[in-house]
Design a protein that fits this description.
By secondary structure, the chain is of the alpha/beta class. It has two domains: about 5-90 and about 270-290, 3-Layer(aba) Sandwich (Rossmann fold), CATH 3.40.50.720; about 90-265, 3-Layer(aba) Sandwich (Rossmann fold). The protein has helices at about 15-20, 45-55, 70-75, 90-105, 110-115, 135-145, 175-180, 200-205, 225-230, 255, 270-290, and strands at about 5-10, 25, 35-40, 60, 80-85, 130-135, 155, 170, 185, 210-215, 240, 260-265. A seven-stranded parallel sheet has the order 8-7-6-9-10-11-12, with helices on both faces. A five-stranded parallel sheet has the order 2-1-3-4-5, with helices on one face. Strand 9, helix 8 (about 200-205) and strand 10 (about 210-215) form a beta-alpha-beta unit. Helix 1 runs parallel beside helix 11 (about 270-290) and helix 4 packs across helix 6. The relative contact order is 0.16.
Length: about 300
């Protein structure tokens, strides 16, 4: 039987086509609805009302890789199958992470601010020790790309199963030791209660003054005040932040004028980049829902990602 799917809040054309290509039928929400495909813009209260009113909804496809804004709702409805874009957006975000790494190591941010000819500066990524926090689709893509420059890559993840291609795989308990040797620290983990302020003043102090921080995950994973202090005092060589806390970063914030900071407006992936990737995920999940195969991008409700 063709699964009946609602695309909300508006039936966006590419997602409607994806549902149909997967063998589903797009209809308004009813008691026959088996799945919801969300675009950005549906508020949590509306979603909760739908889940309460229509218990036949077995699957909810969330629009992004990060699911922290839905965490409370997922905890209240753990019996539903929640899927996200995790793993699907690794290519564009990993590409941008590499761009940020190279930019801060080679001093591109300083050159972009300069108004006169200056002295050469920068360091190569080749042979550097890189620590990647997170082993999902984004973290693994960063690992793949950075491996072209160095074999000294440590991946930090929740469990000890080795990540193929990494020189070392450590759990969260090994993060502190990994930071002491890092030339580049890349944050690519999901935002959860456990990763909030993961990089605080204490952990920033573990990094050497020659080290660089790159955050393409979520802003609250870093203690912004502690980072501002570390950069201003020269205790960190530089930081590239595609995400900030607060976000958007307000005008006049010290990070804007910090010469060691490179700020980008959460552009690791753009809508044009991720739309075809999300549509492909939706098509496969509709097909899997109809045939009983496991869904892609399942969210571990207990873990929060």
């Amino acid at each position: 039987m063709e699964p009946k799917i609602a695309v909300l809040p508006e039936p966006r054309g590419d997602l409607v086509s994806a549902v149909q290509a997967g063998g589903g039928v797009v209809e308004p929400v009813s008691k026959a609805t088996r799945g919801l495909v969300l675009t950005e813009g549906l508020d949590g209260n509306t979603l909760e009302t739908l889940l309460a009113e229509y218990p036949g909804i077995a699957w909810i496809q969330l629009p992004l890789a990060g699911v922290d804004q839905y965490e409370d709702l997922m905890q209240r409805y753990p019996d539903r199958q929640w899927t996200s874009g995790k793993g699907a957006f690794g290519q564009p975000v990993g590409e941008f992470a590499l761009a940020l790494i190279l930019a801060v190591l080679r001093g591109v941010d300083a050159f972009a601010r300069a108004q006169s000819w200056g002295s050469p500066q920068g360091t190569s990524l080749h042979g550097k020790r890189v620590v990647i926090v997170g082993a999902g689709g984004v973290g693994r893509e960063i690992l793949r790309l950075v491996s072209a420059f160095t074999e000294h890559i440590t991946v930090v993840r929740a469990h000890p199963e080795p990540v193929p291609g990494a020189e070392k795989t450590v759990t969260d308990d090994g993060l502190d030791e990994a930071l002491r040797d890092a030339d580049v620290l890349v944050l690519a983990a999901p935002m959860t209660a456990e990763t909030a302020r993961l990089i605080d003043a204490r952990r920033l102090a573990l990094l050497r003054p020659e080290a660089f921080l790159v955050n393409i995950a979520r802003g609250p994973m870093v203690d912004t005040g502690a980072l501002v202090a570390a950069l201003a005092e020269g205790r960190l060589a530089g930081a590239a932040l595609d995400v900030t806390d607060p976000q958007p970063l307000p005008d006049g914030h010290p990070l804007w004028s910090e010469p060691r900071a490179l700020i980008t407006p959460h552009t690791g992936e753009t809508p044009d980049m991720i739309r075809p990737l999300l549509a492909a995920r939706v098509e496969r999940n509709v097909r899997n829902l109809g045939t009983g195969f496991p869904l892609e991008g399942r969210v571990d409700v207990r873990a929060g990602y």
